[in-house]
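Hi there, hope your week has been kind to you so far. For a while now I've been wondering how a particular protein folds. I'm sending you its amino acid sequence along with the backbone structure tokens. Could you read through the record and tell me how the tokens relate to the sequence? Take your time with it, there's no hurry, and the full record follows here.
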Amino acid sequence: MSGETPPGTANNNNIVDLLSTLNPIAATASSSTTTTTSLTPSTSTIRNDDINVDSSDFVPANRLLTQRQAINNAKQLESLREQQQQQQLQNMEIDDQQAFEVSFTKHSNAFHTLFEFYQDQILCDVEIICDDQTFLCHKVVLAATIPYFRSMFTLGMLEADKRRIEIQDINRNSLKTIIEFAYTAKAIITIDNVQHLLFASTVLQTEDLAEACSSFLRQHLSLTNCTEIRQYAELLNRKSLIDLADEYIRDHFLEIIQLDDFYKISYKHLKELIASPDLGILDEKDVYDAVIRWVKHDPRERAVHLADLLHEVKLPLINTEYLLTVIAQEELIKTSLTCRDLLDEAKVYIFKKANLLTTKSPMGPKIIPRKTAAGKYLI
């Protein structure tokens, strides 16, 4: 029948209509043939009867165009970058006499990773034992950051090849802090741990940490701890801390000599203090009183130092009445020939000043007032 539609043509037309609704491009491709529908580049054919159309299988044409454009733009950008890199390399004109250095900041996190290894006990190759506590560490980290261990591991000491190393005379908490400092360059200093930590860091030669401890102590100097801190600083030979503690003690001398800690000062230290022109006193009598009280606190051990200490006291500047009625009557001075000579020397100066003597008697520094008392005396 000439007016009838050939079998199968209606089905094909329906598919084309459906495709044109979902995807104009696919519809155009489908309308070109009535036997197969090619949705993707392929050599296989698909029978019309087997097609199950799902709208999710198709992408609108405008989206396809946008995606293709984005892909093309990305390819062009990548190509441009490659051309720029090639141009840079050509411009460098690298030859045998030149080098190209690269730097990656991520390597700066290496110690952070090593600290994680320390915490998780990964790849540790040495055991540091202190007070029955064991710290698993990495030799290379300890040697790189703690001079004590660097010498131990690199200068042929017996411990260099040992797995277990025992550390004595150091507080274990302080050692733990120093080991963690080796990995992190961080430490917590408190009033409770600073002395132990200063001792440990001095012994292990971690100077940065030792100086941080010294700075902490300098900031916390007070009347009640200055003499103790000074003694500790002298024990560890921390010169900057010694100097600052001495300055504090000199400035507060009149207050400190009223405290029990004053009697703990050593003979050598006391002599250095009273020999200073910066001693914070207003009357030289206070210096003599401090000396005689210090000696009488333990006369059996300290009487032998009285003459040396009295030599640093500016006796000629002391009130004449006090000199003659108190100092001259002191039994410890009466029984010491050197002390009596010092007293007589002061008397000569006083009598000369009162025009009672014409004998020349050079006194030198003995008659030069200390800085804080200079305004009191008329020489």
User: Anything to note?
Assistant: Residues 8-49+58-85 form one domain. Confidence is low (pLDDT under 50) at residues 1-12, 18-59. The first helix runs from residue 9 to 22. The chain is about 55% helix and 5% strand.
